[in-house]
Structures are given as C-alpha cells and as structure tokens.
Automatic annotation (TrEMBL):
EC numbers for this chain: 6.1.1.20
Gene Ontology cellular component list: phenylalanine-tRNA ligase complex
Predominant location: cytoplasm
Entry's family note: Belongs to the phenylalanyl-tRNA synthetase beta subunit family. Type 2 subfamily.
Catalytic reaction(s) noted: tRNA(Phe) + L-phenylalanine + ATP = L-phenylalanyl-tRNA(Phe) + AMP + diphosphate + H(+)
Pfam families cross-referenced by the UniProt entry: B3_4, B5, PhetRS_B1, tRNA_synthFbeta
B5 domain: residues covered: 301-376
Required cofactor names: Mg(2+)
Keyword Transcription regulation annotated: no
Protein name: Phenylalanine--tRNA ligase beta subunit
Domain of life of the organism encoding this protein: Eukaryota
One Gene Ontology term from the biological process aspect of the record: phenylalanyl-tRNA aminoacylation
Regions crossing the membrane: 501-521
Organism expressing this protein natively: Manduca sexta (Tobacco hawkmoth)
Length: 523
C-alpha cells in the first residue's frame, strides 16, 4: 500500500477547514484511507539517516496517509483534496474535456522501438500555472506512479517537458547506445548513452533503473523535429526541455511495454494537473502514429457506464436502501449515478481506473454508507471454527518464552546454502534442504532446515545492543524427506531442540520441561 506525505497546513487550506489530528483521522477512515503517521520532514530524515541529517530541514508538520494500491487518483494532494471535497458534498466531481489535437504535437514511432519499449502515448497541458507546491506535487506524483503501477519504470516511464522549448512533431526511436548523445537533466555537458549509464551506476535513485535497458542493443530515445533529445526512457530526461516554475505548456509522453498501463498513467497525470490549466480540466490530445502509419489519439480520458441492480447491491453489502439513495452515495465517491426503476446507472470517470467490476461499485457504496453503520449479522455458513492444534501449541510456547524474558525473532524462511551448511561446519550435500531452482539472490537459495542461522544473523546485526540478548524463534522449517510422511510436529521439536545451543543447557531444560507441561494441558 503506497504512502503519500502531504503538508498539513497546505492540505487544510485546500480543504477549506482546519481539523485536529483525530478529526482528520476519522475523515480518512470514513473515506477508506488511513492516517499512518503525523511527523515532520526533519523527523523522517533523522529516522532514516541519523541525527546528523536533520540540520536545516523544515519542521513543518506532515501527514503520511496510506492509499489503496489501485487508487492512483489519490497519490497527490490535488487528487486527495478533490476526492475528500466530493465525498463531503462540498464540490461536484470534475468534468474533464478533451481539446482538439494539433498536428505539430504528434508523436511518431519508428519500427526499431519494437525491440525494447514498443508503446508510447502523449498529451499536452496548455496554460499551466505552477507554484512551488504544485510543481513539487507534479514531480512527486510521477515518482509515486513509477513505484506503483509502473513497477519501477519497467512497464511505463513518464517524461514531462516544457513544450515552448521544443518543436514537434516528435519522434520516438531506438538507437545503438553509441549514437545517442545529449545533455541529461541537471548535467553540465553532453554525454553519450554509455557514459550516462556509467555516470548513473552510482546514483542513489537512478541506478535501480539501468538494468531495464542496459543489455539491449538499442536504447529508446525521444527527439523533436530538430533532433533535440527530450528523454532517454526509462532513465533520464534531457536538460533542454526540463520543467520549471515558469513553464506554461507541458508535453507529457509515456513509453511502455504495457499499453493499458500507459493509458492509465497518462490519464492519471493529466486528470490531476489539468486543474491548473488556463481552462481547468481541459486536456489537449496528441496523435500517436504507429509504425504502419495509422494513429491513435491520446489521452483517452474515457467516461464509461456500468449498470448495477439495486436489490443485488443491497444484498451484497447488507443494507436496505432505495435506488436514489445508492445513487447519492456513489456520487460522493466521484461516480455520477442515476436511478432507473430497479437499476442504477453509474458513470465511471477517467480518474477511476480501479473500477473494473460491479463489486468495486458495491465497495464504494459501502464506504460512502459507512462500514460502521452496516448491521452485524451471523454468518449464513454453518461451521465450527477452531484453532489448528499445532498453531495452538506454538502460541502457548511463544507466551511461555516471552514470560521467561526472551524476545521473539522473526527471520527469513529462505537462506543461503552457506547458512545451513558451510557456516555450521557441514557439507551442503549432507543437509536435507529443499533448494530453490532459480534463486534471485545468493541470500535466498534454500529453505531453512533449522532456526539457528537466522538467530545468529540477528545477533550479528544487533551487536551494538546492550547485553544480554535473549532471543527465541518458533517457526516452520522444511526438511526434504524421501519417505514423505513425517509430521510437522517433528520439525517443530527439531527446531526447538536447536535452542539448546543458543539458550544454554539449564535454560533449555527449563524450556523443554515447559513444553512437555503444555502438551499435557487440557484444551
């Protein structure tokens, strides 16, 4: 679940009302969000980097809010404010308009792009007025989308450019790295693509994206008609067309390996920031020409209609409301709705790509109605629930260990071959471990056969902590068994037995006697 940080004072100013922390937390809960933390930028840096990092950093209060992973429209202040105001009935849902395309802003794909990132979409925002806050939000939304739906730029990469510094039509091409040379964002000189890849190999943020295209024979690049490089997606934009506070017209391009995701991302970005255009919520489309000469217009910004049954909606949610009431509830969630006999027609806006099924609409009705107002009813399924005996045993063991003064550790189920063999003086061939056929890292090659390595790693990572360190862990281990029939309790006892090396003989005897006592207790 992504988390966004918004300045409290700016948020309250946009909402037109000041809340206490508890009041705003209640509002978030009603809207289906969670106020995760009240902090400051200084406190966040100190937590991440230590006391030395807080010098000169703002102490303005920040709200860190957990956003559902599929609500891309709430990943910035603009979308969050619009959503909350509509939910409170203080504002009508925005009505987006598409402006006719201009041929000079078209984007042309070359056949070479099929080798690496075959799709692209584009749009233009005209007459934008940026402030420092809205500019920061514009950049931050792109970062949030890159980490979320774009899957760290592997599926989609967003590029934004000052339209007044470049000249269309634009070309999306793929060239050998040695043929690409431009001045990258915030750099002082022109460099070739290989030089940039070497430069960013140690960059804190960008180095994680280099592997997306590093081994490709061609790198994607977007140019204007004069050959000025706008970007080398998904790595870096060009410095020539960078966005500033003085930018008035914005050209937005998204290159992708997944066209559907690219459409969603482009719709989200322009929907959120078209409010700052000279004509609010108006977006200019762009022609995107494919390699065969045909073209599509983007962004799509499509409104679509869904129809739900009133009786079925009430039944699924557990309420009893008429169609007009359901339509009103949906309108609070930015889903314009009308009631017709036994049906409700729902108009889904381009900001709500998360609505893909009637169940999503039922969920929005439940949120607007209020989960706490839905009557509790007994389950219609006849069943007798109960705790699994093995889980009951382990819970009792954990409680006794904690009472004895030990701290529980939760370590990784996967570990390296060295952890269960070499470091314990055993050959890996003699360890009945289940091996991962395609391990992604050397740290996760086998499933642990005992708990001791994880506890020793925990000790090694906490050497600065005051002594004594009294740790325990009760978890599953996996031992490859050719006979296939040993019970899980055997593995549990085997894992517990390993504690004698860690607890000491006397503590282990106490622990084992407690275990035997628990096993003989009645339910």
């Amino acid at each position: 679940m992504p988390t966004i940080s918004v300045k409290r004072d700016a948020l309250f100013a946009a909402l037109g009302k000041t809340y206490t922390d508890d009041e705003f937390q209640d509002l978030c809960f009603e809207f289906g969000l969670e106020l995760d933390e009240v902090t400051t930028e200084k406190q966040m840096l100190i937590k991440e980097q230590g006391d030395h990092a807080g010098a000169g950093v703002s102490e303005e209060i920040l709200y860190r809010i957990d956003i559902p992973a599929n609500r891309y429209d709430l990943l910035c202040l603009e979308g969050l404010v619009d959503g909350l105001l509509v939910f409170q009935g203080k504002k009508s849902p925005p009505k987006f308009q598409l402006k006719k395309y201009e041929d000079s802003h078209s984007l042309h794909l070359t056949p070479a792009t099929a080798q690496i990132r075959p799709f692209a979409v584009a749009a233009v925002l005209k007459g934008v007025t940026f402030t420092k806050e809205s500019y920061d939000s514009f950049i931050d939304l792109q970062d949030k989308l890159h980490q979320n739906i774009c899957r760290k730029r592997t599926l989609v990469a967003i590029g934004t450019h000052d339209l007044d510094t470049i000249h269309g039509p634009f070309i999306y091409d793929a060239l050998p790295p040695s043929e690409i040379k431009f001045k990258a964002l915030n750099q002082q000189k022109e460099m070739t693509a290989p030089e940039l890849m070497e430069l960013y190999s140690s960059h804190a943020q960008l180095k994680q994206y280099l592997g997306i295209i590093r081994d490709s024979p061609v790198y994607p690049v977007i140019k204007d008609k004069n050959g000025v490089v706008l970007s080398m997606p998904p790595i870096i934009n060009g410095d020539h067309s960078k966005i500033t506070l003085d930018t008035k017209n914005v050209f937005i391009e998204c290159t992708a390996t997944d066209l559907t995701k690219a459409i969603v991302v482009l719709d989200t970005v322009v929907s959120m920031f078209s409010k700052y255009c000279s004509t609010p919520y108006e977006v200019e489309q762009c022609k995107v020409f494919s390699t065969d000469g045909t073209y599509e217009l983007y962004p799509k910004m499509q409104y679509r209609e869904e129809i739900i049954n009133v009786e079925k909606a009430n039944k699924y949610i557990g309420i009893s409301e008429d169609g007009d009431k359901l339509a009103t509830l949906l309108s609070r969630m930015c889903l314009t709705a009308t009631h017709e006999e036994s049906l409700v027609r729902v108009r889904v806006p381009p900001t709500r790509h998360d609505v893909i099924h009637a169940c999503d609409i039922y969920e929005d009705i439940a949120i607007a109605y209020g989960y706490n107002r839905i009557a509790r009813v007994p389950s219609r399924v006849v069943s007798a629930g109960g705790q699994v005996p093995l889980n009951k045993l382990t819970e009792q063991l954990r409680q006794e260990c904690a009472h004895a003064g030990y701290t529980e550790a939760l370590t990784f189920t996967l570990c390296s071959r060295e952890d269960v063999a070499t470091k314990l003086g055993v050959k890996i061939e003699d360890v009945p471990a289940a091996h991962i056929s395609n391990p992604k890292t050397l740290e996760f090659q086998v499933v642990r056969t005992l708990l001791l390595p994880g506890l020793l790693k925990t000790l090694a990572a906490n050497k600065k902590m005051p002594l004594p360190l009294k740790l325990f862990e009760i978890s599953d281990v996996v031992v490859k068994d050719d006979k296939a029939g040993k019970s899980l309790i055997y593995f549990l006892f085997k894992s517990v037995y390993k504690f004698q090396y860690f607890l000491g003989q006397s503590d282990f005897l106490f622990f084992f006697m407690t275990l035997l006592l628990i096993l003989n207790l009645p339910d």
